[in-house]
Structure formats: C-alpha cells, structure tokens
Specification:
- This protein has 82 residues and is mainly α.
- It has 3 helices and no strands.
- It is elongated, with a radius of gyration of 19 Å.
C-alpha cells in the first residue's frame, strides 16, 4: 500500500499559503467606494487579497457593470453605486 505524504510546513508558512487563498485581514468596503477612489482602493485590495477574495470581488463588480450596461442599452440613466 502506498501512502500519500503531506508537507509539514511551519505555522508561519501555512499562514502565508492560506492568505494566498483567503486573506482574513483584507476587507473591501463597497459602501466607501466611489468612481474617484475606485482605482486606488481596488489596487490596494488586489495586492493583498487571496484568490477567493478576488473572485468574490470580481463577481460583485461584474453584476454592477452588467446592470449598468443593460441600462445603457435600454437608454436609461446610469448611476454606478457600489
């Protein structure tokens, strides 16, 4: 019978690896986002977020963009609120 070996990383390295997936210390407060500060705030978030955090953020922003694209298509007023 063959055994599957698991790496035994030190705790600090495990925490570093975990943050690559989900960083509990990063939080993007969408209520404070504006079109004026979006780029700066998003860049800081993206530098520190894990892939799970980035995925959630991308899906949220995509919903906002799709909603506003639909408004443009229907010749409605566009108001981007995060």
């Amino acid at each position: 019978m063959e055994y599957l070996s698991f790496p035994n990383f030190p705790t600090q390295k495990q925490e570093e690896i975990t943050k690559l997936y989900h960083n509990l210390n990063i939080n993007l407060d969408y209520k404070k986002l504006t079109l004026e500060n979006f780029n700066e705030v998003d860049n800081i978030f993206c530098e520190n977020a894990g892939i799970y955090d980035l995925d959630k953020s991308i899906k949220y922003i995509k919903r906002i963009l799709n909603s506003n694209i639909e408004k443009i298509i229907n010749d409605e007023n566009v108001n981007i609120n995060f």
